[in-house]
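Please decode residue identities from the backbone states below.
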């Protein structure tokens, strides 16, 4: 029997199959295949698709299991090898390779399918994807990592999940190096990220400078390589009561590979059609068996991403001239210098990134006789070196910051980072009778340091160095938790009870940079800026250390009242050392109306305490304007400036989330789900507008505090808005035989709208918000527009694939809806800024996969096949947008602007050197790529 298993290729795959010859059909000269498909509960699986592919010829035969789980495929070619695929909704697809058939000796197989269980949204270990009472996306990373154009996890999910958005930022300081994420149009820190079901730490970085998720704390999903993951589960429903504070928009659970054998080597490379943005990736994964039932799975990889630049080198003197705002003087001085605009081209796309990553997943039984008691551990480490570029410092706008003996014609500072992100989890699971006990501890840390090159401290004059260590920050989180879990199969139709507790300790620290990165030495030209140009270092007054602890307890009960009706509830209590306590809850239900249709709904309350980073962060930032750099300070709510301004302490955000959905399964070949939701968030934390010296005399104490802090402007974190987000998620999948191959089509869409329900403005700033002058408000226009219309209202993904023989072709179309935002208001202008409308865009990907042998897979593809670009900011403003509020036309506004400020309007800001903003999609254009994977141990 062992030799027969080896002959059929089953032993190495670890699949359960029983093979026996049947002599009753010995008269046939052809081969035949038949068998039975069951579940792991020994239940017959009806209407499962069984596909047999003759690998030498590509001939494909199919069958469907009947009411008894049986299938039969007669008149097959003898020999082989054949590849068998068994597909059924709610179960993981099973693939059997290297199967040989013998003429006149029919072969019978018995398959056991494993349910496609989900680990988020439920604590039952047997709940399948379609049985879930809340919507969950399950992304197969084993396939996506080997075939998709993207190598970063954030970008791979951006192009695979409609409700998930993550666009790379440019000229946004730290956000150039860590991609901000958004789930259901909400902020990065309003989702919760888990690794193997355990809480993952956030970064020390706060998104600033008007980037996506401005004022919020991010997760660095790219710290884990896609090839290290088995799958990603995205719970599209509030789950704070189940998993803890932050899970307002939902939960993203990264499941690491747990294979105890085999592995792969993945090589990927690509380049844009303009010859930049070169990428390369080498990833190695290996599974090792530990004892009879243990495993260790490790992944190591290195990848590189080159910088990109878009737009022409031509400058517009209204925005960023080199020498003068006068056209003739500009031309004369350019000629005299022997330079052209090509010498001052702004790097404005993706930052240059180097990554080294490693991760592991381990589990071993504590005894040879029982698998219930186990030790497990997993984690990862990521080292990243990034290089982004700040806007040029030029004589026309910042002559005082030009040191002729060092950079006579100006310079383009480089903002570089060293990012280190690490996590480690260790725990035990014990079987205590019918109960299971899980005890674990999680340690996570994120460290980010800035250094500047091609820069200077102009206040030092000719004595200035060209590179600086600018300091940075780090965040450390420790989480200990205990969970008891038990399924009572005879209570109602099955009831699962889980309860437990959690202790969390957070530590945040800002580290000052070297003295020359922040100090004003007064040795340069009059008015020369202090600190390193491009990114001023953290000064000693910004250096801060803070700690917080949190204790939580939860109860989670999920009951099948009948075999068709499921009801779940979760209760959670949390107490923070600095913000008091909260009690939140969730209720969910699922009703199977008929065999092919089900309804589901949920209601939950949420609670998100201000991140320690938001509570403590303080920094002076150099904001580049057409009139030179200005110092804008972000002051925490414990600072003198905040107290003088009347800014109160930050309060937790509170949410209410209601959802209702429909699940249709008209046939095993087609499934459809629709889920509507509404998320109300009170006291939402954002970054305020930028405030300078108050000339009205109503905020005299604030003016004095600004002077003491050596700042021109100030911003604060504040509980300023109540929002409402409404949306609809649609997911449809279809798979069927077509000709000699298999057609698979999926359509997924997210429709999303966020609105401001209320503004909350401190008394001292209420005149600003109600004075009908839109540009200098307590909550500025850009912040509000990023919340309401900064994410695409519509995102639709259509995948059309066809598999035949050794080939698989996939055409992917992505529709990104329109985005509308106000521009930056760096100065800040009382008139506000221009309104930009970015029209809908559709991007098309084409991928061709070839499997010459069972161990080798080659993929060639094109991302953005039709070379579609988002609207540039000038088009989004002057063709699609509108002038600041109160002006009927751009001509009227431009005339007014020049009369008031003595120069032509430079709005939208930086439209010549930064022609694109990171809105719906990448602005790198067409991207060609190749991937090669070698599978070990097949």
């Amino acid at each position: 029997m062992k030799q027969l298993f080896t002959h059929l290729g089953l032993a190495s795959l670890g699949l359960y199959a029983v093979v026996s010859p049947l002599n009753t059909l010995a008269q046939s000269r052809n081969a035949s295949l038949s068998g039975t498909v069951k579940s792991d509960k020994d239940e017959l699986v009806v209407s499962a698709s069984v596909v047999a592919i003759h690998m030498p010829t590509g001939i494909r035969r199919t069958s469907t299991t009947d009411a008894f789980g049986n299938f039969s495929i007669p008149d097959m070619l003898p020999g082989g090898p054949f590849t068998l695929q068994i597909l059924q909704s709610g179960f993981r697809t099973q693939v059997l390779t290297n199967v040989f058939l013998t003429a006149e000796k029919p072969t019978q197989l018995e398959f056991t399918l494993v349910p496609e269980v989900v680990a988020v949204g439920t604590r039952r270990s047997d709940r399948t994807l379609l049985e879930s009472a809340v919507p969950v996306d399950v992304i197969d990373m084993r396939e996506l990592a080997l075939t998709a154009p993207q190598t970063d996890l954030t970008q791979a999910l951006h192009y695979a999940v409609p409700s998930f958005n993550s666009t790379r930022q440019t000229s946004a300081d730290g956000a150039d190096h860590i991609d901000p994420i958004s789930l259901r149009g909400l902020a990065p820190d309003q989702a919760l990220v888990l690794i193997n079901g355990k809480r993952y730490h956030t970064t020390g970085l706060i998104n600033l400078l008007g980037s996506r998720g401005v004022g919020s704390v991010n997760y660095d999903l790219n710290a884990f390589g896609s090839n290290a993951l088995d799958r990603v589960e995205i719970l599209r429903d509030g789950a704070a009561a189940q998993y803890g504070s932050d899970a307002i928009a939902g939960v993203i659970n990264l499941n690491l590979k747990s294979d105890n054998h085999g592995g792969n080597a993945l090589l990927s490379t690509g380049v844009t059609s303009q010859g930049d943005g070169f990428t390369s990736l080498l990833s190695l994964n290996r599974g090792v068996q530990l004892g009879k039932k243990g495993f260790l799975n490790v992944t190591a990889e290195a990848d590189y991403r080159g910088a990109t630049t878009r737009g022409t080198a031509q400058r517009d003197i209204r925005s960023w001239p080199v020498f003068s705002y006068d056209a003739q003087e500009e031309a004369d001085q350019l000629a005299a210098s022997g330079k052209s605009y090509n010498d001052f081209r702004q790097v404005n796309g993706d930052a240059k990134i180097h990554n080294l990553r490693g991760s592991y997943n381990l589990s071993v039984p504590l005894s040879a006789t029982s698998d219930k008691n186990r030790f497990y551990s997993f984690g990862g480490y990521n080292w990243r070196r990034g290089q982004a570029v700040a806007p040029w410092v030029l004589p026309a706008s910042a002559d005082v910051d030009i040191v002729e003996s060092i950079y006579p014609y100006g310079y383009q500072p480089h903002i570089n980072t060293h990012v280190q992100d690490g996590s480690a989890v260790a725990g035990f699971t014990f079987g205590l009778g019918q109960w299971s006990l899980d005890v674990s501890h999680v340690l996570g840390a994120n460290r980010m340091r800035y250094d500047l090159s091609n820069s200077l401290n102009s206040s030092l004059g000719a004595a200035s160095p060209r590179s600086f260590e600018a300091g940075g920050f780090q965040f450390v989180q420790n989480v200990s938790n205990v969970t008891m879990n038990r399924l009572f199969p005879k209570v109602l139709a099955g009831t699962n009870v889980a309860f437990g507790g959690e202790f969390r300790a957070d530590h945040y620290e800002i580290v000052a940079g070297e003295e020359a990165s922040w100090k004003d030495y007064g040795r340069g030209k009059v008015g020369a800026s202090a600190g390193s140009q491009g990114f001023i270092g953290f000064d000693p007054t910004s250096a801060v250390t803070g700690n917080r602890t949190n204790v939580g307890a939860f109860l989670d009960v999920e009951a099948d009242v009948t075999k068709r009706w499921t009801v779940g509830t979760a209760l959670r209590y949390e107490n923070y050392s600095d913000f008091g306590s909260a009690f939140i809850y969730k209720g969910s239900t699922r009703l199977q109306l008929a065999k092919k249709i089900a309804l589901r709904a949920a209601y939950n309350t949420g609670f998100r305490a201000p991140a320690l980073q938001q509570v403590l962060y303080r920094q002076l930032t150099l904001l580049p304007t057409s009139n030179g750099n200005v110092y804008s300070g972000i002051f925490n709510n414990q600072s003198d400036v905040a107290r003088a301004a009347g800014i109160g302490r930050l309060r937790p955000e509170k949410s209410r989330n209601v959802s209702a959905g429909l699940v249709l399964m008209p046939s095993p070949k087609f499934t459809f789900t629709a889920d509507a939701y509404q998320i109300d968030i009170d006291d939402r934390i954002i970054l305020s507008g930028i405030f300078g010296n108050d000339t009205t005399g109503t905020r005299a104490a604030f003016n004095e505090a600004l002077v003491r802090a050596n700042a021109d402007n100030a911003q604060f974190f504040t509980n300023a808005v109540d929002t409402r987000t409404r949306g609809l998620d649609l997911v449809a999948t279809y798979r069927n035989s077509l000709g000699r191959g298999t057609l698979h089509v999926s359509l997924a869409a997210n429709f999303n709208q966020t609105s401001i329900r209320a503004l909350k403005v401190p008394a001292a700033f209420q005149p600003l918000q109600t004075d009908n002058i839109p540009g200098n408000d307590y909550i500025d226009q850009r912040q509000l527009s990023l919340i309401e219309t900064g994410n695409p209202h519509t995102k639709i993904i259509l995948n059309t694939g066809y598999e035949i023989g050794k080939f698989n072709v996939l055409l992917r179309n992505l529709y990104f809806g329109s985005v509308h935002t106000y521009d930056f208001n760096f100065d800040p202008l009382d008139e506000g800024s221009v309104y930009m409308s970015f029209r809908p865009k559709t991007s098309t990907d084409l991928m061709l996969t070839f499997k010459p042998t069972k161990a080798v897979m080659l993929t060639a593809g094109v991302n953005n096949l039709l070379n579609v670009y988002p609207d540039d900011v000038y088009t989004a403003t002057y063709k699609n947008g509108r002038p600041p509020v109160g002006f009927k036309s751009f001509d009227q506004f431009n005339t007014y602007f020049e009369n008031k400020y003595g120069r032509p309007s430079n709005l939208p800001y930086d439209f010549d050197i930064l022609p694109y903003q990171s809105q719906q999609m990448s602005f790198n254009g067409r991207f060609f790529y190749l991937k090669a994977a070698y599978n070990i141990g097949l």
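Observation: The longest strand covers residues 717-738.
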